[in-house]
Structures are given as structure tokens and as C-alpha cells.
Amino acid sequence: MKNKILPFSVIIIFGIIFFIFYKGLEDSKIYTPDVNTKKEIPVFNTKEFFSGENVKSSSIFELDKVYLLNIWSSWCVPCRQEHPLLMNLNLENKLNIIGMNYKDNLKNAENFLKELGNPYKEIFIDLDGTIAIEWGAYGVPESFLIYNNEIIKKYIGPLNQELVDEINLLIK
Amino acid sequence: MKILKFFLIIIILFPLSSVNAEENDKRNKITKNLRCLICQGQSVYDSDSEFANSLKIVVDKKLQEGLSEDQVYEYFKTKYGEWILYDPGLNKNTYILWLLPILIFLIGGAIIYKSFIVKK
Q1: ipTM for this model
Q2: Domain A39-171 sits in which CATH superfamily?
Q3: DSSP state string for A82-117
Q4: Domain spans in chain B, listed from the N-terminal domain onward
Q5: Is B40 in CB contact (< 8 Å) with chain A?
Q6: What are the residues of chain A with a beta carbon less than 8 Å away from any beta carbon of chain B?
Q7: Are A79 and A141 in contact (CB under 8 A)?
Q8: Chain A contacts of B111, Cβ < 8 Å?
């Protein structure tokens, strides 16, 4: 009887390990930060896109208003895809869309807006990518839905019609 | 006179360079323990992605502001979550990771003890 316990338990342990590893194969190995956390928006100083004047984050985001912060860049191809959706969102809603121009050449960025339109109420620049890190973003495009200086939801990657519908539902 | 000038320059430069070296070491140590989220599997130190380069600037800024190594980790943890650290702390999500080796060691030890030493 004693002799049987050892091989039996070894088989069971291997079975459990196999099961855990097998399950692990199905999980996505690409980590994405939590998108539903309610966090205060960061405080930062930056420059306005068109005038180049210094602006404080507190003067951009007011309490009691809904904002969509969109991180974009002229060199980012998915930004081009989502741009028409932002244009529509701007026309349809009371939503204030704020742009963060990420690591961009300003001339290229201006041409991008001339070509595709400007859905942003205000744009500020993030030349070295450090403000994006303050926001907990890690690439372009990324969008943050903000109310009362709190991040309600974070959208990693380009927006699509489904997500735009979700935003419309959330801000109602 | 020339020799005096030479020594003066060395005296002025030497402490500065050693301070810089210390700061660089600290920065390298921190960036080696931060995971690049764009090229996952690489550390921020090894990576040359846009994200990693910006992160290096932020680490420099935070060190200049006088934050300690742990405070810098804490800062990134609040921004991106525990996953950004290569060396996670002990909490409810990681306790298995920390306790499993000890458990395996104890169980293995018990089996060896029972089957080899007690038998003798």
C-alpha cells in the first residue's frame, strides 16, 4: 500500500501541473494595464499646440465636464483610421475632445489636421513622451474618458464604431 | 602654473563624474527592473522603443526630484500596475509565486527524508 502512494501522488501532481500549463497556453501573453480603474488625472505643465504657450493641466480639464483625451500623432497609422470617428463624435456630442500630440513633428501634425480636420477643442504637446507616461499610456493612439477630473475609462488602440457607441452610452 | 591648473581641473571634475556615475548606476538598475510594455519580455534598459525611451527620461526626472529607488517603482506601479516590475512584491496575486518554491522544497525534503533516511 505504501509503495503505491508515492507513484500515485507523483502522477496526480504532474496531472495538476500539466493542467495549469495547458490552461496557461490559452491565456494572452500580452499584458494590458487595467482599463476600468477610477484614477485622478495627473497634474502637468505643457505647451499649447498652435500658440506654443505654456498651459497647466488644471486649465484644460474643468470639473463637471466630460472630456475625451485622445493621444495622437501624424506618424501613427491607426490614428488616421480613428480620426473620422473623432470628427463625428465632435459633431454629435457635447463631449470635449482634447488632443495630446505625441512625439511629433509639429509641421507634420498641422498638415495631418489640415488634411483630415480638427476634432479637438484644445491640443497640447508631449514632445518627449513623458506626459503620456504620467497618464499611464504606453503608445498611440490611446483615449481616456474623463469626468470630474477622474479617468472613467481608458481605450488602448484605435477607437472603432463599437467603442464610440459605448462612449455615447457612458456620457448620456 | 600649468600643473596647478591641471590639478584644479581634475579636482573640479572628479567628484562630479563620480556623482554622475552613481546616478547612472542607479538609473540602470531601475530601468533593468522595469518591463517594456511595448516589447514585452525586454526590460526598459534593453529596449529602444519610443515608450522605453520616454520611460528612461521619466526615471531620470524622478531621480533628480530626489525620489528613492522604491519610490520610483511605486510611482510606476500606480501608473501601470505590478506587472511593470520584474521583481514583484509579496501580495495576494503573487503569494503562490513566492510560497511555491518553499512548499516544494519542504514536500520534497519530507519525501526524501521518509523514503531514504527513515528506511535506513
Answers
A1: 0.76
A2: Glutaredoxin (3.40.30.10)
A3: HHHHHHHHHHH-SPEEEEEEES--HHHHHHHHHHH-
A4: 2-88, 89-120
A5: yes
A6: 6, 29-31, 33-34, 103, 128-130, 132-134, 136, 138-139
A7: yes
A8: 6
Q: Is CATH 3.40.50.720 the classification given to domain B2-88?
A: no
Report the sign of the C-alpha dihedral through residues B67, B70, B72, B77, in that order: negative
**Amino acid (1-letter code) at residue A97:** I
Q: Determine, for residues B83 and A31 on separate chains, whether the beta-carbon distance falls below 8 Å.
A: yes
Provide the whole-model pTM: 0.75
Decide: residue B83, CB within 10 A, 0-12 exposed, 13-18 middle, 19+ buried: middle
Beta-carbon separation of B115 and A103 below 8 A: no
Annotate B50-105 with three-state secondary structure. HHHHHHHHHHHHHHHCCCCHHHHHHHHHHHHCHHHECCCCCCCCCHHHHHHHHHHH
CB contact under 8 A, A33 and B80: yes
Where in chain A are the domains? 39-171
Give whole-number Cα distances, B103 to B95, B99, B107, in Å.
12, 6, 6
Q: Over the stretch B30-69, which tens digit does the pLDDT of each residue have?
A: 999 998 888 878 899 999 988 899 999 999 999 999 999 9
